[in-house]
Amino acid sequence: MDAYKKSDRYLRDIAFNFTAAGKDTVNAALTWLFWLIITHPSVEKKILEEIKENLQAKEGGDWRFFNVEQVGKLVYLHAAICETLRLYPSVPFNQRVSIQPDTLPSGHRIEANTKVMVSLYSMGGMEEVWGDDCLEFRPERWINEQGGIIHVPSYKFIAFNTGPRSCLGQDLTFFQMKTIATAILWNYRIQMVEGHPISPCLSIMLHMKHGLKVRVSKRSDV
After folding, report:
1. Which of 28, 72, 201, 220 can bridge 90 by disulfide, Cβ–Cβ 3.0-4.6 Å?
2. 8 Å CB contact between 77 and 174
3. Residue 215's closest CA among 181, 179, 190, 180?
């Protein structure tokens, strides 16, 4: 019994520390997600239609909650999150150091102990990587003809890092964001405060420089 208790405590501590570490990245991503959704009414409409079509809302209360299986059906919302992280990755820069001389995919030769700064933020807006509509918020780019999510290699969509250092919490991040976004969008109408400036604060974490100022009202149209 003591072994079980120790095991439970160990796993609980790991989960707590993991969640705490990812809290800021999820918060930053959700801020950009809500801003992009509410400034693109057609996207918001499609998300609400998808929620209505796929989820069984609970009656008898102000709030309606959804479980893991239900939010897994929200393909368009998943695509909107991918598109948000492409344009506004929570961690905008990544630094690596070469342990030996190497040649990068671009053809550039680097020596050992060379620091290489990768700008995830810049990569998300590169025409040669994402096409001539690279600066547009278009969740449809992530959905295939069968209505599923298109697999994009991690070296192209690098919001969760790539290779052996890929983020272990990717699935948890999507679940958290879809759960929160679904609950808020289904229950509330969010509108931007006119004239509020929106710009990124380029630091270790890609937060909004002035925050997101909105008006929130109870939704009655779903």
Report:
1. 28
2. no
3. 190
The two beta strands, 115-119 and 102-103, are unpaired
Torsion, Cα of 84, 85, 91, 94 (10° steps): -140
Tell me, what DSSP letter sits at residue 151? P
How much is the pLDDT for 55? Answer: 79
Burial code (b: 16+ CB inside 10 Å, e: under 16) for 164-193 equals eeebebeeebbebbbbbbbbbbbbebbeee
Distance of CA 42 to the CA centre of its chain: 19
- Give the β-pairing of 93-97 and 115-119: antiparallel
Handedness of CA 211, 215, 218, 219 (dihedral sign): negative
Please say if the pLDDT value at position 150 is more than 80.
yes
Show the domains of the chain with their CATH numbers.
24-90+119-218 (1.10.630.10)
The enclosing H or E element of 192 equals strand 188-192
Three-state SS for 212?
coil
* Per-residue DSSP letter, 193: P
